[in-house]
Design a protein that fits this description.
The protein has 145 residues and is mainly α. Helices cover 83% and strands 0% of the residues. The protein has a domain at 43-143: Four Helix Bundle (Hemerythrin (Met), subunit A). It has five helices and no strands.
Length: 145
């Protein structure tokens, strides 16, 4: 092998190695991107599932406050506050319309929860807000690949 080899001769001799290196670097980049995307999707799914569980619990509170015993109503309303606060906090890491609809649920709960036992309109407004968060959460789940 001569010391005077041209660059084109060196490239020709090492073409397989250069192609392999290019493929390896490209594969590593793609794999890193895919892992990050997968982790993001896992996080969104976890948040969405937790949101749906909490929404179910809150729906139970609404129904108990409306139809339950009077002595249990205050305890259930306090539990509802805890749930709406948790939903509001968890929703901050969700995508799409979930943070906005969770904020609206929190505000609606604050305005209407004291009237649940006696005001059917208050119950319907809270249920509408719950259903909006649920629908937005479903939309996030559908958007994940």
């Amino acid at each position: 092998m001569s010391n005077n080899s041209t660059i084109s001769e060196q490239l020709r001799r090492n073409a397989v190695a250069l192609i392999s290196l290019t493929i390896a670097i490209t594969s590593l980049g793609y794999n890193t991107w895919r892992n990050e995307a997968s982790e993001h999707n896992r996080n969104q799914r976890l948040v969405a599932i937790e949101m749906l569980v909490m929404l179910g619990n809150l729906q139970e509170v609404v129904l108990d406050a409306r139809y339950g015993k009077a002595d249990q109503a205050n305890a259930r309303l306090r539990e509802g506050w805890a749930i709406t606060l948790t939903l509001h906090d968890i929703a901050m890491v969700a995508e799409g319309q979930v943070p906005q609809s969770a904020k609206q649920l929190f505000d609606t709960w604050g305005d209407r929860s004291g009237k649940l036992r006696d005001d059917e309109i208050a119950q319907k407004e809270i249920e509408h807000a719950i259903n909006k968060v649920r629908a937005d959460t479903h939309e996030v789940l559908r958007s994940l690949d």
